[in-house]
Write a structure and sequence with these properties.
The chain is mainly β. The protein is built from one helix and seven strands, in the order ββββαβββ. The chain has one domain (2-129). The chain starts with a strand and ends with a strand.
Length: 133
């Protein structure tokens, strides 16, 4: 299975995306995100880093769904796992890890998870998003 994750940041922000098979995603290797790490089941990781970029996160509010644009440092990863690792397994692991680290869940749907994590130095929180449906 292929799992893609984007990480953005004004402090830091992250978007997590996965996909099965499909065309190869030829990106150079980058170091892990300082806060959000890959799952142990990842067999290969590729990615790209930008000093500054933007991403619109879809979040759930009392009024319904809204988009919130976050700007800052930006990471995008493509994670490859074995076929026995399901999307639900990945989402539930990231959700549990986010809550364990004091994160806030902003959207939790069938194929989408958006959360923030406090940064170690107490700055702007990291934003993370799971796969696009």
């Amino acid at each position: 299975m292929r799992w893609r994750r984007r990480i953005l940041g004004a402090g830091l922000a992250c978007v997590l995306l996965w996909g099965g098979g499909g065309a190869a995603w030829a990106q150079k290797k980058v170091e892990d995100h300082p806060v959000i790490k890959p799952l142990p089941e990842v067999t290969r990781k590729e990615g790209v880093f930008h000093k500054f970029n933007a991403h619109k996160f879809r979040i759930k509010t009392e009024e319904g769904h809204q988009e919130k644009e976050i700007r800052g440092k930006y990471w995008e990863y493509s994670y490859h796992t074995t076929d026995d690792v399901s999307g639900l397994y990945i989402l539930e692991n990231y959700k549990a890890a986010a809550l364990e680290k004091g994160g806030t869940i902003l959207c939790d749907e069938k194929e989408r998870l958006v959360f923030t994590l406090p940064t170690p130095e107490g700055g702007t929180p990291s934003w993370a998003q799971s796969p696009e449906p």
